[in-house]
Design brief:
By secondary structure, the chain is α+β, with helices and mostly antiparallel strands. It is built from eight helices and twelve strands.
Amino acid sequence: QRGGGYRASELTNLLLIGVDDAGSASRETADEADFLLLLTMDRKNKAVSALQLDCDTVADIRVYDDGGNYAGVRQARLRQAYGSGTSAAEGCKSTVWAVSSLLGNIPIDGYIALDLSCIAALTEALGGVDITLEEDYSQIDPALTAGAALTLRGQQAEHLVRDRESGGDGTNTARMRRQRAFFRALRAQLKLLDMRTLSALYDAVRDHVVTNVDRSWLVNRAYECVGYAWLEIGTPAGSYRTGADGAAEFYVDADALAHMLAANYYYN
């Protein structure tokens, strides 16, 4: 049970939405989301937490008719919320609504959608991303072996984040682990940057981005978080089932999720 109200004066939530098809974050018609990460900036505790959501999570999403008129709510995979809008911006709003609804209607203060092809541009703008791999990903690239210490560049970084391994179990778990590994390595380098460099980095990828927050707000928040503690990336507990279409669906453990929300987003 929640002990008190939502910590509105202490928290800022920003949803990162990755879209798999190159260029699709800025297209007129939306596609599907392939990466969802809720960043929470905690001003009281000077910390940033991150919650990665499986895009195959079954949740309530808004649906619209061919004319773009709201037609109700249905249960579907979270990834499909992005494609329900008539534009990328509308798809973002639908995704924000679906994620907020799943997470007990906590407010989401802003969103950033980016097509995952921008990983190459981002990596190049940084001069590479240093990473030590804890698992073997040589199915994707022969150089991506367990224990390898690499400086990822361009397409190699993009493949690590986007590709699915052949012969997998059909779920999104392996790719989510790779995405978390890359994000941890990326944030370690971002913490070393000054505001001017952060601004230049945003400019290098802005053509890949759709967002409802302005550049100065985003750069200032990023610079503020440089001095914050970055907590380990979490994921909701739950289980997989096979959907009617034969593909994997993820179902969140409602009790575990309620406990997590109460502990992290509400006054005790």
